[in-house]
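Shipment paperwork, digital attachment
Item: protein structure file
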Amino acid sequence: MNADNDTAGTPNSLQVLSLSSGNYTSIQNPKLPFDLQPNTWHTVQTTVSGTKVTVSIDGTQIVQIDFSTVSGAPTFTSGSVGFRENGAESAEFKDLSVVTSSGQSFFKTAWRAQMP
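Attachment content:
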């Protein structure tokens, strides 16, 4: 997520990237329907079902991508979904949870983590 004061990317947008063989490929960079101010908390939900990835912020769906139809993106049959910080980017995370498709908690933490 790029805040409204972002100078390295597009302000008020979400970066959707694919990582394969150590290289990032930009898939989409949708504009957010609200002003993303620094130092504010948001609820981000990423849902993965087969080759489809959906990202919602504060209950609003921002993007849904079917990676099997994206030109130039590798097709994955397994793997992981995550978030990243790169270079001078920074973010804080709290109340992180991973839930299986059957609703079972796979991972949960209530601590805050700050990335550079």
